[in-house]
Amino acid sequence: MLENLDPNELLQLYVIPWGTRIIFAIAIFYVGRIVVAAVSRWVEKFMVARRMDEVLVKFLTAILHWILLLFVIIAALSKLGIDTTSMVALLGAAGLAIGLSLQGSLANLAAGVLLIIFRPFTKGNFVEAGGAMGTVENISIFTTTLTTPDNKEIIVPNSAVLGNNITNFSARPTRRVDLVFGVSYGDDLRKAKQLLEDIIAADERVLSDPAPTIVVGELADSSVNFLVRPWVKSEDYWAVLWDTTEAVKLKFDDAGITIPFPQMDVHTPQQD
């Protein structure tokens, strides 16, 4: 068919129309890329100005960039006369298939976005989450990285973090130290309580408000148990816990107060 056309007809019927389409398609793609880049930069600056998390800003900007670029490509292909309806349907089916095959990863991704948006914890917080405990080092789109007190690195999937209870030990500025000290039934109860009060009062790290609590909490099988509940700044928690435990043992020893071992009296019937 093309052999029967003279050069002028070939130029008018094919070269000029298709050349025009190709030029417009290239122009749409080129200009579209510039517009997409400009919009992406503007959105990124807007989110940064709102002090949104850096990880979330990069993630949302990347998604927006590729979605807008996909629209530009479809518009360029449509200008060439290509039926993009079937292409959109094909992309939708491919996206559904990929989504079904990557359910776990998508769940981690969605959980990561929610963690970044709602911020149940931030970098540097000491938390228990996803069955692990440690200091938060990094919150990425798919995982959260924790460092344990003995410097082990734990990488927890975000879906496990968001799907379970989260305990943030660093969220509040103060914490209560819960201590239990047992004394013998034969010891002077008032004297033991006074020693505990003196130890707590002498520690400058213990806060006066809320006031510490020192009470007899239980008459146990082999001891009378004191509940000692001082309030401290969160960063002083472990130091006060360990120092108070040591101080109580030393003071009780000096004062002759006994911390009894667990014991059990066994009575055997006599045989006649």
Question: Would you write up a description of this structure?
Answer:
- The chain contains seven helices and ten strands.
- The protein has 272 residues and is of the alpha+beta class.
- The protein folds into three domains: 7-101, Helix Hairpins (Orthogonal Bundle); 120-168, SH3 type barrels (Roll); 174-255, Alpha-Beta Plaits (2-Layer Sandwich).
- Strand 1 (126-129) and strand 2 form a beta hairpin.
- The model has no long low-confidence stretch (mean pLDDT 82).
Which features would summarize this protein structure in a list?
SH3 type barrels, Alpha-Beta Plaits, five-stranded antiparallel sheet, elongated, alpha+beta, 7 helices, Helix Hairpins, three-stranded antiparallel sheet
List the helices and strands and how they pair.
Elements: H1 7-49, H2 54-79, H3 84-101, H4 103-118, E1 126-129, E2 132-139, E3 143-147, E4 153-157, H5 158-162, E5 167-168, E6 174-176, E7 179-183, H6 189-202, E8 213-219, E9 224-229, E10 231-233, H7 237-255
Antiparallel strand pairs: 1-2, 1-5, 2-3, 3-4, 6-10, 7-9, 8-9
How would you briefly describe this protein structure?
By secondary structure, this protein is of the alpha+beta class. It contains 7 helices and 10 strands.
Helix content: 40-55%
Instruction: Give the DSSP E fraction (strand runs of 2 or more residues).
Output: 15-25%
Averaging pLDDT over every residue, what do you get?
Answer: 82
Question: How many distinct folded domains?
Answer: 3
What is Rg? 35 Å
CATH class of the largest domain: Mainly Alpha
- What string gives the helices and strands in order? HHHHEEEEHEEEHEEEH
Strand order within the widest beta sheet: 4-3-2-1-5
By helix and strand content, what is the structural category? alpha+beta
- Head-to-tail CA distance between termini: 126 Å
